[in-house]
Amino acid sequence: IAPYLHFYKEAMKLHSKVKSRFQKMIDDHRRTYDEDNIRDIIDAYMNEKNLRRSKGDETYQYFTGNDFRTSLTLFLQGKYISPV
Fold it and tell me: Nearest CA to 67 among 8, 11, 15, 19?
């Protein structure tokens, strides 16, 4: 039923735009990453992944771009959408 609802289609378009924007931000950070100059949460996330990898901690594998995009999306939803 949901795919036939107008607002659902609009929400999916918006979700796609947000996902693309976050991916571009992450890709830009990957290209310009400097472990000695942590600029924001994206750099901190990559730094933590690299730190865990260098220590042989297998949990570094869970630091994926998809997970991070999801975390950013949830963060923004919590910031701009208040509970009723």
Answer: 19
Contact indicator for 76, 84 with CB cutoff of 8 Å:
no
**Residue type at 16 in one-letter notation:** S
Q: Tokens representing 32? A: 């310009």
Identity of residue 62: Y
Taking residue 37's Cβ as centre, other Cβ atoms within 10 Å add up to 8
Sorted by where each begins, the domain ranges of the chain are 37-83
Residue 38 three-state SS: coil
Q: Within 13 Å of residue 76, how many CA atoms lie on the same side as its CB?
A: 10
Q: Can you give the pLDDT of all 84 residues of the chain as single tens digits?
A: 566 677 888 888 887 888 888 888 889 999 999 999 999 888 998 899 899 999 998 888 877 767 777 777 777 666 555 554
Is the overall model pTM greater than 0.90, yes or no? no
